[in-house]
Amino acid sequence: MSKEVRQLEPKSVWNKFADLNQVPRPSKEEERVIRFMLDFGKSLGLETFSDDVGNVIIRKPATAGMEDRKKITLQSHLDMVHQKNADTDFDFDTEGIKMYVSGDWVKAKGTTLGADNGLGVATIMALLESTDIPHPFIEALFTIDEETGMTGAMGLQAGVLEGEILLNLDTEDDDELDIGCAGGIDVTALQSYTEETPSTDGVGFLLTVKNLNGGHSGMDIHKGLGNANKIMNRLLFNAMEEFDIQLSEIDGGSLRNAIPRESFAKITVNKAQTTKFEASFKKWADTIKAELSVNEPDLTITMSTTDLPAKVMPKGLQEKLVKAIYTAHNGVYAMSAAIPDLVETSNNIARIIVRKGQIKIGCLTRSSVNSAKMDLANALKSAFELAGCTVSFSGDYPGWNPNPDSAILKVLERKYESLYGAKPQVVACHAGLECGILGQNYPDMDMISFGPTIKGAHSPDERVSISSVQKYWGFVLEILKDIPKR
């Protein structure tokens, strides 16, 4: 399947992307891709090394006549989100991504594509391997674990990098120049409980919510997409209010930075109420699907009878849990007062697991204002603690404060307008970029982020525009020619 992708232009970028996509690279398990990148740099005879946390740095001297330009650091992250459709038979640990071309898009067969941030990595690889592209001194920084905590960027020590300008290649609209981003924090609620034997006059039901679009929990949070965890909880709340039910299991969502696409729950319903329950469930499902019909046309909500569960949750805890999740905010919490149309603060209820006497709820809270981020995190903490959960915060990372007077921004603005006859969109994004973290140890480094157009990141609908990659590659080459002198 990758053969047709390898024939796309620019071939140097697409071939490196295809090579990279043969290497499994989930967050926190990047050993194979680290080795792949170290071998790549050393095969070119370039200075190549990894730091204490696993980030890979490769340095390439300036081409003739460009030795007096400022040194640049080109940065992308090695890890990718591993997510697939429930009915896709694919092993991320052993198989390469199965790519194909559909019109102007490169897609993957039922899985994430890895364009986030594989296209950035492939771009840098193509530049490092090139023999005929004029450029200043290039320092390639390939960070690890961007998707699940940004620990690579956090672990990069001061004094390692030599670049004076950082070009982060992790933005997902080719007409945007990003100069700021949100920070984030993980909110995790845990609780243990003693399971009970279900009532013998109950009937087992499996509830299913699936075929939602999903998407990036930062970049797509404002789009009105459905969250499978919140939809399932709404169904459980309605069932609990009207019928004698007992909750056995919940398995909803997947990764912290992906809007949940699927959720499954097992419950019991009193045998005498099953007919009414089935009718009410259909009514609830139809109502929710109608509400979300514009943004989630493929949403399916089903129920089916199943074996009576062996164990269930105590009803008192069941009520507290369902009401706590109902209370917990999901989606946009506040819009920015400083930057028009920018989401300031949001939360994604990303993962809910109830099984074998254990409850785990995982959220990712984002904000470009640190105090607002902690305000929402504390609101979530309060809701879950009232249900008896122990709540912890982790993975706290800072936002990137916009600098509209950035010198490299002015260079890229002029270059974009001269090439395309239009002004680029200068924006801050609600996603997490590593620039804010890197800036803590490199406060004097001038930073900007840009990239090709990628849609559906963090979901099996992820795709990248072929024509956009061509445009973006041309932009990169022109930028390299115009890096200011020291």
TrEMBL record:
Asked whether the UniProt record includes Hydrolase among its keywords, one would answer yes
Domain of life assignment: Bacteria
Pfam families in the record, alphabetically? M20_dimer (PF07687), Peptidase_M20 (PF01546)
Q: Which UniProt keywords apply?
A: Hydrolase
Q: Does the keyword Hydrolase apply?
A: yes
Q: Which Gene3D superfamilies match?
A: Zn peptidases (3.40.630.10)
- Transmembrane segments in this chain: where? none
Which spans of this chain does the record mark as coiled coil? none
Every copy of the Peptidase M20 dimerisation domain together lies at 209-292
What InterPro entries has UniProt attached to this entry? Peptidase_M20 (IPR002933), Peptidase_M20_dimer (IPR011650), Peptidase_M20C (IPR001160)
Q: What is this protein called?
A: Aminoacyl-histidine dipeptidase
- This chain's source organism reads Maribacter arenosus
Its taxonomic path starts at: Bacteria, Pseudomonadati, Bacteroidota, Flavobacteriia, Flavobacteriales
